[in-house]
Design brief:
The chain has helices at about 40-50, 70-75, 95-105, 115-125, 145-160, 175-185, 200-205, 230-235, 240-245; strands at about 1-10, 15-25, 30-35, 55-60, 65, 80-85, 90-95, 135-140, 160-165, 195-200, 210-215, 220-225. By secondary structure, the protein is an alpha/beta fold. It has one domain: P-loop containing nucleotide triphosphate hydrolases (Rossmann fold), CATH 3.40.50. A hairpin with a 2-residue loop joins strand 4 (about 55-60) and strand 5. The chain is globular.
Length: about 250
């Protein structure tokens, strides 16, 4: 579904990504871990098409097509979704209207309003959100945890093929983390792929990934099946991986 080869990117002449190689197949869940400033969020934003970043080398293929040739809205319409680390507030726009408009851009025929709101209420229940949530303005006055739940609600409604969660666990208490994780797990299937960007192991305990990767200094330097690598990082820290890189073991 996603094939990244030798990807390099910079912002304001400062190199951030320095040769990322990464493959995601349909149905797979990948966890990407790394310390602050290693390039995790930059990778997520470059995939989504954030114009802040300039791609200077490498290729990104999405379902065999050149993803870098598509605008951000074209990528979204093609089935790519990014849950932001810091979701924006949109005063005056209700969540219900926002989601219905977004969903209709991906459909040949607009979904009838009553049908959509019935569907939306089902998703709200899954995330343990009040039915009046749809009337609130997008993220206005929301706590950090509420913003993250709203991102997962958007993902569940839009039904993307490739989901990228950029530090969705930041700012969540234990209960909210569990609810959000259940929402993500409910979307796992053989066709949809999920990339989880995180600092910590705890989210990956709730959403068991097929593969874990460690990113350092703009590159993915270590990968392993399952969640064991995340547990190792939790126990030993990122310095253990830095030592392996310095010793030439990776």
């Amino acid at each position: 579904m996603l094939k990244i080869s030798g990807l390099q990117a910079r912002v304001e002449q400062t190199p951030i990504l320095k040769g990322v190689n990464f493959v995601v197949r349909p149905g797979e869940v990948h966890g990407i871990m790394g310390p602050n400033g290693c390039g995790k969020s930059t990778l997520a934003r470059v995939i989504a098409g954030d114009p802040t970043y300039e791609v200077t080398a490498g290729t990104v293929e999405y379902n065999g097509a050149n993803l870098l040739a598509l605008s951000p809205d074209e990528r979204a319409k093609a089935g790519l979704f990014l849950a932001f680390q810091y979701p924006m507030e949109i005063p005056g726009v209700s969540i219900g209207n926002f989601l219905r408009s977004a969903l209709n851009t991906r459909r040949e025929e607009p979904v009838p309003p009553l049908e959509f709101y019935g569907f939306l209420q089902e998703k709200l229940k899954e995330l343990q959100l009040d039915e009046m949530w749809a009337n609130r303005y997008v993220n206005e006055g929301f706590s950090g945890g509420e913003k993250k739940r709203n991102e997962i609600l958007q993902m569940m409604v839009l039904n993307p093929s490739l989901c990228i969660l950029d530090e969705t666990d930041s700012g969540l208490d234990v209960d909210a983390l569990r609810v959000v994780s259940e929402g993500v797990n409910s979307m796992r299937n053989a066709e949809r792929s999920i990339i989880i960007v995180t600092h910590y192991e705890r989210l990956l305990e709730y959403i068991q990934p097929d593969y874990c990767h460690v990113m350092l200094d703009g590159r993915i330097v270590k990968s392993a099946d399952g969640v064991d690598l995340a547990r190792e990082i939790d126990a030993r820290g990122y310095e253990s991986v830095r030592d392996e890189v310095a010793a030439g073991a990776l």
